[in-house]
Amino acid sequence: MNEYQFQPLTEYREYPVEEMKQRAEELLAEMKRRRSVREFSDRPVPREIIENCLRTAGTAPSGANRQPWQFVVVSDRPTKRKIREAAEEVEKDFYNRRAPEYWLKDLAPLGTDEHKPYLEEAPYLIVIFTKRHTVEADGSITKHYYLAESVGIATGMLITAVHHAGLACLTHTPSPMAFLRDVLKRPNTETPFLLLAVGYPKAGVTVPVLTKKSLDEIAAFV
């Protein structure tokens, strides 16, 4: 069994309490501006920005430090079209046959349906996969742990990084999502977790007026 080497914690920075409060307030104010958009500009986005956002996501904690995520970045137009066509096919089945009435009722105010043009419009689609295990060079298997928790944390950090960089994004979870593995020719050890459309918001785009739950509703202090 390989053991980790340990070293002194040098990266941590402690701030005066008042500065901590200010930093927390500033981040809250920045993240309150974050909105999901469904219409994207075709303005190009430098790949370097996306790469650094992914590096940020890659710093996320994970079970046993296995880092059970794989990010597949799609900018190729034909591939984006294939993803859109496949996604709209499963979404059409969802909206017209599989979705229960209460779900459709909750979605109705948002105006969503099976049409997903943003899957072609956005400069980048980032498809996030969970990796059940890794096959090492010698053929041995390295198991991964807490897949959903680890990949969920990394995805949240990716969304935060995208917003912090000045871009917009939209989470998309077509059901089922197995077609993403087929279109992108990923191994069967990977399972699609979420699709993130990333780019500049289209000029004049509108978003619904939403109310977030208060702190009292989402947190309890014991």
Structure in words:
The longest helix has 22 residues. This protein has eight helices and six strands; from the N terminus they run H-H-E-H-H-H-E-E-E-H-E-H-E-H. The protein has one domain: NADH Oxidase (3-Layer(aba) Sandwich), CATH 3.40.109. With 222 residues, it is α+β, with helices and mostly antiparallel strands. The chain has a four-stranded antiparallel sheet. A two-stranded antiparallel sheet has the order 3-4. The mean pLDDT is 96.
SSE topology sketch:
Elements: H1 17-32, H2 47-57, E1 69-74, H3 77-98, H4 101-107, H5 118-121, E2 124-131, E3 133-135, E4 141-143, H6 147-165, E5 168-172, H7 178-183, E6 190-199, H8 215-218
Antiparallel strand pairs: 1-2, 2-6, 3-4, 5-6
Helix pairs in contact: 2-6
Strand order of the largest sheet: 1-2-6-5
The total count of strands amounts to: 6
Percent of residues in β-strands: 15-25%
Name the overall outline: globular
Gist?
The protein is of the alpha+beta class and 222 residues long. The chain has one domain (36-201): NADH Oxidase, CATH 3.40.109.
